[in-house]
Amino acid sequence: MPHDNRVHPLGPPAGFEDAISNGPVRMRWPNGVEGWIFSSYAGVRKVLSDKRFSANRDGAPAMRTEGEPVLDSSQPGNMNAMDGEEHLRLRRPLSRGFMVKRMAEMRPRIQQIVDEHLDAMERQGAPADLVASLCLPVPSLVIADLLGVPPEHQELFQATAKQMLGKNGSKVEYEALAAQLGEVIAKVVAEKKASGDTSDMIGLMVNETDFDQEELMLLAIGLLVAGHETTSNFFGLFTLTLFERPDQLEILQRDPSRADVIVEELMRYTIGRLGGAGIQRKALEDVEVDGVTVKAGEWAVISLHANLDEELCPHAGELDLERKAVSHLGFGFGPHQCLGANLARTELQILLQSLFTRFPNIRPAVPVTEMTFREDMITYGASAIPVVW
Ligand code: HEM
């Protein structure tokens, strides 16, 4: 089916809105596990912040079409699947590397990377593919810079991400690629140890934490993957949303200095409209959420359709780039809230400002409904966005 079972590529899976319209949905997933899907603003916040839900994914609802997950929950360094102190031990030191101040220091470098790619796109001439020219390479180079990994390994990061996040990614292929990436990272680790440098993320992990080699390796690979895959997909999705809504694009072009609040609204609306239900938690004991009981051992899966809940803001189903920023759930909520949110925000702001200022007449070369979307990944986005200007 086109667009990952979606009627419109920027909308929810077919039948999804009807299914959730009466509150939590009882589910039995293909691998036999049971639980609920929650999509209200209050319900999602409760699932993501209540300590009676665990992030450990052992036995989780199957999101892949085949094969086993490439990462075990118990793997050292798999921070996203840990709870409590074990999770904080890894997360706390890393969050220093993503502080707003550090991101502000990175702005000129990110701007330079974006400008270089826009120059190249202009030289190459229209039509261009925005995904290949901008969405994929920019976040990849930025995260490599933040970690301190040489940028020439971009293709290796992307191939590893494909296996890690691919719906039918193979564990064997993932392990082979992760081993190659491991060699690249091990070299950087040795250099940082020798120099004592803490100016990038690997330097910080090597010289200022008690992480062992195995933890450090998986954390670095996880950041490389998380750091480029989501941001590139969302930049593409934001652009497509704006192409569909010239009235809203005009608001950005009138005052690009408001890119910070505009990114928040695009994030709230785009993720909310897609509605995907992917983040999973397991109940450690019976917990009441939105009038139902998630029994101990059952799963709660959340839908970020919650971003369109009127409880969050008035006319939540509408995109309004003049709206003040609200506490949307696009970056999650609670202890596992996105560690890279400040970086993603900074990149998305610079990308949006720069693309639409530099190419004020940029437009899609084919209708959005004729573009191809990546149906093979857990994360969702356009495979190519042909544009002219
Ligand atoms: C538009 C871009 C992005 C979106 C929409 C996004 C979204 C999210 C969400 C919803 C979560 C919570 C998952 C959960 O509760 O289980 C999360 C966690 C995480 N994200 Fe992001 N993310 C983005 C970009 C990034 C970037 C650029 C990085 C790193 C460079 C990053 C690193 C992480 C990490 C490490 C976690 C796990 C945090 C933890 O478990 O404590 N993300 N992200």
TrEMBL record:
A Pfam family recorded for this sequence: p450
Record region (Disordered): 58-78
Keyword match Acyltransferase: no
GO molecular function annotations of the record: heme binding; iron ion binding; monooxygenase activity; oxidoreductase activity, acting on paired donors, with incorporation or reduction of molecular oxygen
Record-linked Gene3D superfamilies: Cytochrome P450
Sorted UniProt keywords: Heme, Iron, Metal-binding, Monooxygenase, Oxidoreductase
Family: Belongs to the cytochrome P450 family.
The protein's name: Cytochrome P450
